Amino acid sequence: MTITVLSNKFQELFHSLPERAFFAPGRINLIGEHTDYNGGHVFPCAITYGTYAAARKREDQLVRLYSENFPDKGMIEFNLNKLDYEKDHHWANYPKGIIHFIMEAGYMIPTGFECVIKGNIPNGAGLSSSASIELLTGVLVNGLYELDIPRLELIKIGKRVENEFIGVNSGIMDQFAVGMGKENRGILLDCQTLKYEYAPIKLENHKIIIMNTNRRRELADSKYNERRGQCEVALSQLQQILPIDALGQLSKREFEDNKHLITDEVVRKRAKHAIYENIRTLKALEELKAGNLEAFGQLMNQSHASLREDYEVTGIELDSLVEAAWQQPGVFGARMTGAGFGGCAIAIVANEEVGNFIANVGEVYFEKIGYKADFYVAGIGGGAKEIEMEAVAE
Ligand code: GLA
Predict the structure, then answer these.
(1) Measured from the CA of 34, which atom of ligand 1 is nearest?
(2) Is the dihedral of CA 104, 109, 112, 117 positive or negative?
């Protein structure tokens, strides 16, 4: 896709040239799953797949949006004076929510704008196409109206849209990764303090392969909120004795010594995952820094097992992909990535095995599940930004 494609569509729809162009990536999470809303650590990176926009300011108060990914929804139009959630506005509720909260924070958006959007992140695949469109709108509005919104504020606004506008009680990982990504770097983020560090992803002769189950996450949002609720119950029961604000503050020892305070067995398993996964994430960063890719891969595998057994968010599709990946030669590690319940998994695979890997895992998956998985090589790219009108994207 090139920006020229977007520009042509823009001219067809709005009969003039767009003024500016913007990009926001998707993300994968290397390790640290369901730890963000538990005050733990995550280790995501932005990918080179993402969402593009070409835009132009208007003179009136209208915002007119068109997505090449949802042509059946047509042009979606709303006024800056009426920025409420509307079911019929479908995907455009994400940009609308961003504009809503930017204005609520006191930034002046004096006129509307028109915009064409196109993304190459598979939708609903757990690669954060929603955080991508949120941050895309954030940098777009920030750029068009020269608002100077600090990046962290845009990230937090993105999370608010998800939580308060859309109704998914997600943590901050996705918006942070999409907003702060850097080429060939992972981001270790402490979700309690928001302190972070970049770590080079040196995979030597390996690639990160994204494996898409092609199972859409229909019930995902309600199950996601349910998991979050269970972690809150565990925290409040542990707080009867322990002076903690989040599960992520506990060591394994502290958890094991106090887990009897959690009365429900299922809730206890959820807490165990959150605490052990947080510790695995910190260990994984150490291993990566020391160049111990094999140990890093083992931690990825343990992460998946814990998400399958204790957090129970994998399901047959993700398990089939990951378990088939574990059997292949040249694989350091594989795990689901993102919220789970369908969506994508990742694997670290030796360059010379990538072809066989895709063929073999693809075949096992098709035989077991009855439809195809898709595979992509993940490039680790930069965060949301303005791009040249001439920029060429993949
Ligand atoms: C989704 C949420 C994130 C995070 C992951 C699970 O991607 O948006 O905040 O909780 O699930 O790690």
Answers:
(1) 12
(2) negative
Measured CA to CA, the distance from residue 254 to residue 252 in angstroms comes to 6
Q: Which of 142, 217, 127, 219 is nearest to 174 (CA)?
A: 127
DSSP letter assigned to residue 310: T
Which CATH number covers residue 48? 3.30.230.10
Q: Which residues line ligand 1 (CB under 6 A)?
A: 29, 33-34, 36-37, 170-171, 173-174, 338-339
**Range(s) of the domain holding residue 329:** 206-378
pTM: 0.96
For a substitution probing ligand 1, which of 31, 37, 133, 174 has the most ligand atoms within 8 Å of its CB?
A: 174
**Residues 184 and 318 both lie in one domain:** no
Rg of the chain taking only CA atoms, in angstroms: 21
Catalytic residue among 88, 148, 174, 245: 174
**Residue 31: how many CA atoms within 13 Å on its side-chain side?**
31
Q: Is 84 a catalytic residue?
A: no
CATH code of 327's domain: 3.30.70.890
Residue nearest to atom 8 of ligand 1 (CA): 170
Q: In a structure prediction context, what are the per-residue pLDDT tens digits for the chain, which is 394 residues long? A: 567 889 999 999 999 999 999 999 999 999 999 999 999 999 999 999 999 999 999 999 999 999 999 999 999 999 999 999 999 999 999 999 999 999 999 999 999 999 999 999 987 789 999 999 999 999 999 999 999 999 999 999 999 999 999 998 999 999 999 999 999 999 999 999 999 999 999 888 999 999 999 987 655 578 999 999 999 999 999 999 999 999 999 999 999 999 999 999 999 999 999 999 999 999 999 999 999 999 999 999 999 999 999 999 999 999 999 999 999 999 999 999 999 999 999 999 999 999 999 999 999 999 999 999 999 998 999 999 999 876 544 4
**For residue 195, what are the contacts with CB-CB under 8 A and spacing of at least 6?**
189
